[in-house]
Amino acid sequence: MATKSREIRLKSRPVGMPEASNFEVATVDVADPGPGEVLVRNQWMSVDPYMRGRMYDRPSYVPPFQIGQALQGGAVGTVVQSNDPKFAVGDLVESMNGWREAFVASGSALNKLPGGVPPQAYLGVLGMPGMTAYTSFHRIGEPKAGDTVFVSGAAGAVGSAVCQIAKLRGCTVIASAGSDEKLAWLKSVGVDAGVNYKKGNLLENVRAAAPKGIDIYFDNVGGEHLEVALDVARPFARFIECGMISIYNDKEPAPGPRNMSYIVGKRIKMQGFIVSDFADMREQFYTEMGGWVRDGKIKAEETVENGVENAPKAFLNLFSGGNTGKMLVKLG
Amino acid sequence: MATKSREIRLKSRPVGMPEASNFEVATVDVADPGPGEVLVRNQWMSVDPYMRGRMYDRPSYVPPFQIGQALQGGAVGTVVQSNDPKFAVGDLVESMNGWREAFVASGSALNKLPGGVPPQAYLGVLGMPGMTAYTSFHRIGEPKAGDTVFVSGAAGAVGSAVCQIAKLRGCTVIASAGSDEKLAWLKSVGVDAGVNYKKGNLLENVRAAAPKGIDIYFDNVGGEHLEVALDVARPFARFIECGMISIYNDKEPAPGPRNMSYIVGKRIKMQGFIVSDFADMREQFYTEMGGWVRDGKIKAEETVENGVENAPKAFLNLFSGGNTGKMLVKLG
């Protein structure tokens, strides 16, 4: 018996800032699972800033989304019907089949999840954003106790994980976010100083918060924040280039920092990465980060929209600062 | 008996491009050496692009030059009189007391040089520029045989050493320089393809020379070259940030590359350095590079001005592309 599933399709490629009209809802019949296949009903799906890049029609590390087809992204769901002996009805599984209510996939495309934490943690602090934060902060940032760490986009899923990991490593943490409420939450989880980038002069405010300069910059936003970070960087600073959300929607490429020569004079290391580059750290991540989450040493905040029809809204809100912590869509 | 020495002083700080009027010649009496001191007559002195940075009055990794005082820089000379038992008359020594004909210094500020190569090699391919090229190319560039290496400022002292070291490591080398004559010389020492950055569209020309992209970018110039390198970089490319001569004389800071987001998407590592950061590689450098130079596997070209009074001219010519290979001033 076919299962009805609503899904979100890319209707047109955004030019500049994405809009609701770039998306459409469709209802499809999901066929019964064939041999080796599993039927899954999604409970939660993730929207992430990197998905904006897949809406451009250009070569990248992941192929572009196709117009008229369902979008993709991280999701956790429950097995409803299984023709793969590795999965039983009721199992919690992770997939890249987000943006839809139900789907059939080969068991090999699913990842069975342990319990013990809320299922949506596997889309946030114990999922791709958490692993992004944990792996790059250690591998590129090379943190030492006493380092000063500046984090942009600090209230987001990745940024808020970085802030808390840095505190656990004995660092001083300066967080930039777009509202005083977000900064208040970040201080409640241990951040030393907050900068509201929408108020006053960013460079002056960061200088005041980090009078001795910074040793590590965790970059989620690019643009002006990157220029400021170059200005306040100490010699041998490490720049973890995770994302540049401030320029993802630019129609014309914006000029880069005016102070690039600091990279030479201050001997800065600036390095980009994709979380899969650090797949060798997966076990270490699950062990250490899992322990921190279970022990309450790392707190995960969430912003939740309900229903697949609100997934585009959740995605659009990423670019207007609508989320504190992980932005999620509850489907189940 | 005092020794007369002519020296070059900074008369005024350059604003934008340095001019002859920023310098002045003075004649001083050099006193006889005291206990532990040595009197040296310089044979050769070096002018290098990094000296422009010391003409600004700002904190940096080396203190700024002072107005009315003699400039400083690498020099090789001969011991004329010695009160330090470690130095004998006739010894060849290296110092940071360039821009003058003779000087007295503590023996501890001098470095005795072996023979076997022309003395001025210790200001070029076996000196600071050669060590800059050798250490950073290996330590930051992490070259593998088969890599494609793009070198800007390729005809200069550092760039031409990088090109030849890269060839010895089995890399394909694309060189950018400002004249067809320079490129012809670079091809004569093994470079695979040359781009004259003064002719046509730089991006198109680099793309044509490196159709599969680049794995290592050795940056001496910054500016447009850096943007082009980001465009043609392959995933996991390493950018060795040695210098940005194209922007050293900017009166207003110029915007950076418009394609900074490639650092994330292509997982680029961009790292600045100062040669002293890699002091631990000194012995390896002398051994391997010395062998290459003696065996004729690395060729050093020179552009020479004569007389300390022409040192400012030599320095100014660095910024108009007046040198092929190491720019030197012959004093002895």
From TrEMBL, chains A, B:
Annotated keywords: Oxidoreductase
CDD domains noted in UniProt: PGDH (cd05288)
* Ranges of residues in domain Enoyl reductase (ER): 16-329
Q: Which SUPFAM superfamilies match?
A: GroES-like, NAD(P)-binding Rossmann-fold domains
Please give the Gene3D superfamilies that the UniProt record associates with this protein: Medium-chain alcohol dehydrogenases, catalytic domain, NAD(P)-binding Rossmann-like Domain
Q: Which Pfam families does the record cross-reference, listed alphabetically? A: ADH_N_2, ADH_zinc_N
Q: Which InterPro entries match?
A: ADH-like_C, ADH_N_2, ER, GroES-like_sf, MDR_fam, NAD(P)-bd_dom_sf
Q: Name one GO molecular function term.
A: oxidoreductase activity, acting on the CH-CH group of donors, NAD or NADP as acceptor
Q: Which protein, by its recorded name, is this?
A: NADP-dependent oxidoreductase
> To which species is this protein native?
Candidatus Viadribacter manganicus
The organism that produces this protein has a lineage beginning with: Bacteria, Pseudomonadati, Pseudomonadota, Alphaproteobacteria, Hyphomonadales
